[in-house]
Design goal:
This protein has 367 residues and is an all-alpha fold. The protein has 16 helices and two strands. α1 packs antiparallel against α8 (191-215), α8 crosses α13 (277-284) and α8 (191-215) packs parallel to α14. It is elongated.
Length: 367
């Protein structure tokens, strides 16, 4: 959060002072005529709640809740620092991008290697319009690149022919960026590279699922599960009356604080721990020794632990006062009562005299 984080504690002398000028109610300043001129009187319509600024907060009962999506993005931005073999993978990916990111090299592959083959039309549809750039500064950018380039990578990997591609051209590395067809052949034939690619995408899927969950609502999860964005819109409009000119969203979208208090991060941790070698093998479909697969799984575990522990640090405030009282808003009454009891227990455990320093909401509920 930025400037808006300080809004609840903004010190004001009158509530209308924080409103824009064009909606601020006028405060009448009547003038009384006397022989010597006009004498300005005190405002007769000044609000009764005008009190000295140092004793008043604009929204004393408001709770700061930093955005979950923002925390997820920041927690995964440097996920690459948790991997042991990331630098090796990234170097090979950069070499691959010298081919995928070059329109001329892709066109040569289409015209020279595929030529009049039946796969030409499919390859043209995949390769001609690819315009992504590889940004290695943030893990999320690299993961997005991997997701977008995966169909191209699989197609080129299946149909690559170095002899046909280099026929009639110099085999030496390019003077512009060092691209060499021989290096590309080595990368395309590397089963570990393919498995590591799929492992990174598996982590990305779990991060995206958490982001979609944070932006969703607890009341329409079952209704919208597995639907395309268009079908989600249609199903929501069947339950929520919204003008066609604006998108249809549930009013509870993004209201996930109660579930975060109830332990949503624990569920994410369980899901990530449940990922096995077999699930990664099913996605990659490459033959690797068991020892290599175990190393790939270890890399996945490192990334999973990094995300979960990072999120625990960034979102751990949900488990302490005053935010833990938000668990009382849970859609499951049993869970809501349990979380409120936990909040009461935390209040009772406070040291002597500390209760007066707690948030006004806590004081109103438990004092």
């Amino acid at each position: 959060m930025g400037t808006e984080a300080g809004v609840p504690h903004c010190q004001v002398t009158a509530a209308e002072d924080v409103l824009p000028a064009f909606v601020r109610p006028s405060r009448l300043q009547p003038d009384v005529e006397v022989e010597a001129g006009c004498v300005q009187m005190e405002p007769v319509l000044a609000p009764k709640f005008c009190v000295p600024a140092e004793t008043t907060s604009f929204m004393p009962n408001a709770l700061h809740i930093p955005g979950v999506c923002h925390a997820v993005h920041n927690a995964s931005s440097n996920l690459d620092t948790s991997f042991v073999d990331w630098s090796v993978f990234l170097e090979r990916l950069k070499l691959l991008h010298k081919f995928l990111g070059s329109r001329g090299r892709r066109d040569r592959f289409l015209e020279v290697v595929l030529g009049a083959s039946p796969e030409y039309a499919e390859g043209k549809a995949l390769l001609r319009n690819f315009s992504h750039t590889l940004h290695a500064e943030r893990w999320g950018e690299v993961a997005t690149y991997l997701a977008d380039a995966l169909p191209m990578f699989k197609f080129v990997r299946e149909h690559w022919d170095e002899v046909a591609y280099t026929r009639g051209m110099d085999d030496a590395p390019s003077k512009d960026d060092g691209f060499a067809a021989q290096a590309l052949t080595s990368i395309l034939a590397d089963d570990w590279f393919c498995a590591y690619w799929e492992m990174q995408l598996c982590l990305r899927v779990h991060v995206l699922k958490l982001l979609r969950w944070a932006e969703g609502c607890p009341c329409h999860e079952t209704l919208l599960m597995g639907c395309t964005p268009h079908m989600q819109e249609m199903r929501l409009r069947s339950e929520i009356s919204t003008p066609r000119s604006v998108p249809c969203r549930c009013p509870a979208s993004g209201c996930r604080a109660a579930e975060m208090v109830a332990g949503q991060l624990g569920k994410l941790e369980e899901v990530l721990r449940g990922v096995s070698v077999n699930s990664l093998m099913a996605k990659a479909r490459v033959a690797l020794p068991a020892s290599v697969w175990s190393k790939v799984l270890e890399e996945f575990r490192r990334g999973a632990v990094f995300i979960v522990e990072n999120l625990k640090l960034r979102l751990g405030y949900f488990q302490v006062l005053p935010w833990v009282i938000l668990g009382g808003c849970h859609h499951d009454e049993t869970v809501a009562r349990k979380q409120l009891q936990r909040a009461k227990d935390l209040w009772d455990e406070l040291p002597a005299g500390a209760s007066d320093l707690q948030h006004p909401l806590c004081q109103q509920l438990f004092q």
